[in-house]
């Protein structure tokens, strides 16, 4: 029984290492699946909806500033950064599952959209939503600190 559980966890972990198809499509991040392990600022469904990040200051450097902040968090791996898009992986400490966080700067609205999703499984017990809210809180603090300077 223990061996079956170990094999199942190992298989799930290995499956989470495969990168899903990500990126912007027609100016939007991809929709969340029906499973409750994803949040996105492009979603209308309340169970998957989160707010985008507000941009203050130089919009051309907003994504890179936010990525630097996120990169200081434990378990991160910055995969891709452009002027308006970023993909960051988060690896859980024990089971080594991988979650993907994407950022997309919307120059028209001066917002950075966000999507955070687990690669495997159905439920993440709210981990992606909590992660986005931690990032949001740190982002607001950094904006407030910059405004004081």
TrEMBL record:
A Pfam family recorded for this sequence: DUF1499
PANTHER family: EXPRESSED PROTEIN (PTHR34801), SLL1620 PROTEIN (PTHR34801:SF6)
InterPro entries documented for this protein: DUF1499
Name this protein carries in UniProt: DUF1499 domain-containing protein
């Amino acid at each position: 029984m223990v061996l079956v559980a170990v094999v199942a966890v190992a298989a799930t972990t290995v499956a989470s290492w495969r990168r899903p198809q990500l990126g912007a499509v027609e100016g939007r991040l991809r929709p969340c699946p029906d499973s409750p392990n994803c949040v996105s600022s492009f979603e209308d469904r309340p169970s998957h909806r989160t707010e985008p990040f507000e941009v203050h200051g130089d919009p051309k450097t907003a994504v890179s500033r936010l990525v630097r902040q996120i990169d200081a968090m434990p378990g991160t791996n910055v995969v891709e950064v452009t002027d308006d898009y970023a993909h960051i992986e988060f690896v859980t400490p024990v089971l080594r599952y991988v979650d993907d966080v994407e950022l997309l700067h919307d120059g028209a609205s001066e917002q950075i959209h966000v999507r955070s999703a687990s690669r495997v499984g159905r439920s993440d017990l709210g981990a992606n939503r909590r992660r986005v809210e931690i990032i949001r809180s740190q982002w607001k603090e950094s904006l407030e600190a910059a405004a004081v300077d």
